[in-house]
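Subject: design request, 187 residues
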């Protein structure tokens, strides 16, 4: 097994979850919420990478035409919601932090950030990497990086408040736009 290649793949796939976790955690989440966010991202990355490896090219061929639009729609929705809530908070001069991270939001973020892991998983057999181990490494690296990203986002959010939440929403939307642009640039 080529451990260096596997780590490069895992780090590459985890970049978007790190950015999303940092952006989303600007709401000054608790340690528990950060752990839930990181666990969601790690679990989705693991499951999608494994599904991609087991489903192979059939699922990948279908999703490659839509994955960028799905990611864009989900990230734009979450980012827009963050911006709206930050502006609402700013206008009211009251910090309204939801003490819970809703399950539906975790699910949407998990799906939006793990579509790439599905495609990467489909390549694992061609790279002659062990499927379950590779998917587990992708999940663990995604968990770790999203935890660190969320922790950093939380620290920034505590310092700068709702103004930086607007920036976080913009970052999420930008990641979605980049997903679409990358698809068209690659074609």
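Subject: RE: design request

Done. Sequence follows.
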């Amino acid at each position: 097994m080529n451990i260096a290649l596997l780590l490069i793949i895992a780090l590459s796939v985890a970049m978007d979850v790190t950015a999303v976790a940092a952006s989303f955690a600007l709401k000054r989440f608790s340690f528990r919420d950060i752990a839930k966010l990181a666990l969601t991202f790690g679990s989705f990355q693991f499951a999608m990478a494994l599904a991609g490896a087991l489903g192979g090219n059939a699922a990948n061929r279908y999703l490659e035409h839509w994955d960028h639009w799905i990611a864009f729609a989900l990230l734009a929705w979450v980012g827009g919601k963050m911006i709206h809530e930050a502006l609402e908070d700013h206008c009211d001069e009251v910090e309204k932090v939801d003490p819970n991270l809703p399950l539906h939001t975790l699910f949407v973020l998990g799906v939006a950030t793990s579509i790439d892991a599905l495609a990467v998983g489909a390549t694992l057999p061609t790279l002659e990497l062990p499927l379950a181990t590779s998917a587990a490494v992708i999940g663990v690296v995604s968990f770790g990086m999203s935890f660190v990203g969320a922790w950093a986002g939380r620290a920034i959010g505590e310092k700068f408040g709702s103004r930086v939440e607007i920036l976080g929403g913009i970052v999420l939307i930008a990641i979605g736009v980049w997903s679409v642009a990358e698809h068209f640039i690659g074609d």
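The two ends are 32 Å apart (CA to CA).
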